[in-house]
Design brief:
3 helices, seven-stranded antiparallel sheet, mainly beta
Length: about 190
Amino acid sequence: MATSSSGWGGSDPVKHLFAPLIGLPAWGVQNGQGAMLTFEFGKPSLQVREPIEASAGASAHIRASLARRRVVPRGEWHLWIYCCNWRCAANGVEIAHSDSASTDIATAAAELDGQRLLAVKVEPLIGRSTFTFDLGGSLETSPYDDGEDEQWFVYRSSGDVFTYRADGHYSWGPSDERPEDAVWRPLMAVPT
């Protein structure tokens, strides 16, 4: 999706981005590598990655993994909580955070799975984001020490991705765009 020179989504691109997700249940919520979390929203479809030939220096495990076809159910929107601190709560009581044991992180993912997204609040001046859900769940993200880490991504089935960075900047463009070609725009603080 091409962006205009004034930025995507007018004065509040986050509100524009999440508008179609508000009221949808999160599904397939799971812990990825480390403390990463992924959420699916909207109608499911299958994402198919055909087998890939590994480089000559790849380990036997990597070669075997890439040689298999990978089929994964994905939603119309895929939220990936990436390089950030996060805290998950149920009715105001913390369940887990990004440094919790893997069993606690799995419990947090299970708590948010099936809850409808009610609101997303982003505070770009401090790099914090809060995702609020209908059954009392919440997920708050905050920066690591490096102010330019990508905190979260929202992938759309159209192939576009919205990336939010810890320094309050965002990019919006094709998911296959090279990182060095991304255009980063400051997200303005919007009164709530």
